[in-house]
Amino acid sequence: MLFHSFDRDPDDRRKFDWTEVYRKSDDFLFHADNPPVQEYTEKHAELATYYLY
Question: For 7-30, what is each residue's pLDDT tens digit?
Answer without folding.
Answer: 999 998 888 888 999 999 999 999
